[in-house]
Every structure is written in structure tokens, then in C-alpha cells.
Amino acid sequence: MRWLFALLLVLLAVPAWAQAERSALARVDMSASSLTAEGRDRGKPRPLDLRLTISQPVPYRVYFLDGPPRLVVDFREIDFSGSSAEALPGRDLVPALRWGRFRQGWSRLVMELPGPYALRMAQQKPAQAGAGGAEVRLHIEPVDAENFVTRGNALSALWDLPTPSVIAPGDPHRHTGRRLRIAIDPGHGGHDPGAQVGAIHEAALMLSFARELTEILHRAGFEVIPTRTDDSFVPLERRMTIARAGKADLFISLHADALPAGEAAGLSLYTWNPQADDRASRELAMRHDRDDLLSGVDLQGTDDQIADVLMDLARMDTHPRAEAFAKFTVSELNRAGIAMHRRPIRGAAFSVLKSPDIPSVLIELGFLTDPGDRANLFDPAWRAQTAQAIVRGIAAWAQDDAIRAGLSRR
């Protein structure tokens, strides 16, 4: 098979919560990267092996161009600043090699080749020999001109590659005609620190995770509407107003609460359910609750009974969509090996979920009162895997939601 073009989407790592202010872009480890050739140099093109060790896995795509023959690798995204392509061990094996950022969200490596080549192997795996991060390895072999397939004249998928971690993330939604907008709501803030265990405050922890999640969403092509970007108090009504003003397609509230030891552990997702009879859910709802939120419908001059009817009618569309998102996300979290509550999808009367016009889900990333959850919440690898699984859940849900929107219009 001719190997021309690949779009590889793999799990993205994110920085530790304590380093949330810093860039989470991958960086090249030049000491563990190289370009090597097979066989003796007899004046003819030889098979080449390119290995790049980077600080974290990134999505990438590979293709060839002609005039002159070139291998092009687009990464989303590596920060090449401070790393000279000329310093790569084995650089003298090819006529030219350069890399750098070429547009928003993407970096590019271009390697001029001594003749036509074909891609025989591409993989991304954990870095070897104790090095951190990941290793991207590309193996290319010389071919004759007839078998030199460039991006301009064919498109074929590579075999044996990882399943895409995000499905068509940047594509316009069929219902809205634009990229999806995700409202990210870090719980609490300001004079409301949320759950506290020792010196740990839920509000600060969720703000740092929200920043990490936001960066991954941006890389995946989604638009993000944050309800708060610093340690400030934002009333629940205002959070939904921000989401609505930004025309959010999905609202995700992030929390890490506290309950008496042994009562709750593991990640879980909540959708709106005022009749929830689970004791832990009721207790959490009381902790979260503020003034009632009647948004999305003009309820001035109506009595409570009419208001309830109007809200329930509006939720006939948004609530099933919220539940569908929860199911897609739980599926992705399971695939990522993230430990969850024995009932990962539950209902609760959280006021922040009341909005009838935006599918809304509250994610309890864990409980600060549980030692295992607490360790996870401070583990960069766990946070990275969890954030990426959530993004994959959003992408899968978006695709399904777009298809259902198209069918309902018919």
C-alpha cells in the first residue's frame, strides 16, 4: 500500500496543576532525538529513521511533497523555539531540515529528501530509556518515481495506527453551522472556596484543571467560554448568563467536593434531576445551591406552576442531550482507565444544571475527602488522561448530536 498522508490523534498530556500558568506545548529533547540511515553510504538514497523525543504526546500528520521531494510532518503542537533543526544528530543525511510554527495551533517539520520516498512506519509511544514524554518515530524508504505518492494526488490512511482520540473536533456542527462552543465552569471562587481539606481549596484546584482542559479544547478546535478565569466569585445565575451570552452549545461545571470519609469516591457526572433521592446527591445539592435559576425563558408575570411547565417543556430537548453527553464521556473515561464511582452517571438538583436551553453536566472529578481521589487530583498524568477523555467525549457527542439534529430536521 502507498503511504501518503496520516492524521494521527493521540492522548494529549497537560501540565501539572501547579504549573497551569505555563505553556503546555510539547518540547523537543534533542539529546534523545536523531535521524539515522540504514546500510552503507553508496551514493544512493537509503532508508531513513526519524526519531523525535518530545515532552508529551501530540497529534500529528505525515505526508510528502514534490519539487523537491520533501517529508512534511505537521504537529499540533510542538514548541520548537530554542531547538535548532541543524543540531539534530544525523541532520547531514538529508539536503535540508527545518522546523517551526507555521500557523495558529500547528508546528511543522520539513525534511528535504535525496529522492522519492514512501512512509513505511509511523508510531508514537512512550519515550525509551527512562526519558519522559513520548517518542515519534517515522521510517521511510526510497521508491521509484512511479511509487512516489504526494499529498497532491492521493489520500490513503496508514495501517496499525492509534484510534483517533478526537473525532472531527473542529468541524462545524450541522445544527449551528459553526464550531462548537463549550462553557467551562470551575466551581466556586472568591469568598466561596468550596470544599476544603487542610490547605487544599476546591475553587483553586478546579480553576487550574479548567485551564488545562481549556488548552486541550482549543487545540482540538473547540471554542471555549470560561465562566471565570481567576479566583473571583461568580453567582450561579451569572455563570449561566455568561454561557448564554457566548451562545454555548454545552455547559460543563467542574467540582471536587467533600463528603464524610467512605461516603463517596471516584469521578461521576451529574445531570439535572430534582427528584434525585440519593442521600449524597441531596447533600451535595444543598452545598452547591444558591438562588433558583429560571433562565432561557421569560417567566416574568407567571406563577410557579406555569414556570415549572415551561421549564420542563424546554428540557425535553436539552436534557436527553445532556444525558447523551454524559454517556459518551463515561465511555471515553472507561477507555482511558479512569476510576469512577460505581454509578458514574447520576441525577441531582444542582442549581447550575437548571438551565433549560443549554445541555448542562456537572463533573465531580473526585472527592477531596478520599485519599485516592485526592492523590489523583494532584497527579499530572491522571489529570491529563481525564482532560483528554473529556475532550474525546465532547467530540463523540458533538458528532452524534449533529447527526440527530439533521435527522430531526427531516
Automatic annotation (TrEMBL):
GO cellular component, one term: outer membrane-bounded periplasmic space
Domain called MurNAc-LAA: residue spans: 240-395
UniProt key word Hydrolase: yes
PANTHER family linked: N-ACETYLMURAMOYL-L-ALANINE AMIDASE, N-ACETYLMURAMOYL-L-ALANINE AMIDASE AMIC
Catalytic reaction annotation: Hydrolyzes the link between N-acetylmuramoyl residues and L-amino acid residues in certain cell-wall glycopeptides
Signal peptide as annotated in the record: 1-18
GO terms assigned for molecular function: N-acetylmuramoyl-L-alanine amidase activity
GO BP annotations listed: peptidoglycan catabolic process
Protein name: N-acetylmuramoyl-L-alanine amidase
Pfam families: Amidase_3 (PF01520), AMIN (PF11741)
Keyword Hydrolase applies: yes
Keywords: Hydrolase, Signal
Record-listed E.C. numbers: 3.5.1.28
Organism: Paracoccus shanxieyensis
